[in-house]
Amino acid sequence: MSFAGHVFDMIRKNKENRDLLNLRRERAKNRSKTYLGKEDPANRPQISLEEYESKELKEWEKEKEKRSLRTTIVIAVCIVGLLVISGILVKWFLLR
Q1: What is the phi-psi region of residue 2: left when phi exceeds 0, alpha when psi lies from -120 to 50, beta otherwise?
Q2: Helices and strands of the chain, counted as H and E runs
Q3: Contacts of 47 (CB under 8 A, 6+ apart)
Q4: How many CA atoms lie within 13 A of 68 on its CB side?
């Protein structure tokens, strides 16, 4: 490749990089819209601090209730499993 070939290749790569940069910027804008709920923050309804805290507290209580239910279910399954295993072991040792 001659010197001109190198120059044209460098120009082509610079153009591709500019296109990729513009594409990355557009994706970042779309991503920020997705994270913000596809709304402009200025257009969101304003709520009071008390409403926000009560909403946050309700969500926290729901999550806490879900966690406690999951924990209870896991513990119950473990206890039933241990009882089944111990019953099998007792029968196996008593029948010998």
Answers
A1: beta
A2: 2, 0
A3: 55
A4: 6
Would you say how long the chain is, in residues? 96
Regarding pTM above 0.70, the answer is no
Instruction: Give the C-alpha separation, 51 to 3, whole Å.
Output: 69
C-alpha–C-alpha distance, residues 44 and 38, integer Å = 11
- Which pLDDT tens digit goes with each residue over 27-82? 888 777 767 665 555 656 677 777 877 888 888 889 999 999 999 999 999 999 99
> Distance (Å, rounded) from C-alpha 59 to C-alpha 41?
22
> DSSP H helical segments within 2-48, as ranges?
3-35
State residue 45 phi and psi, 5-degree precision.
-70, 140
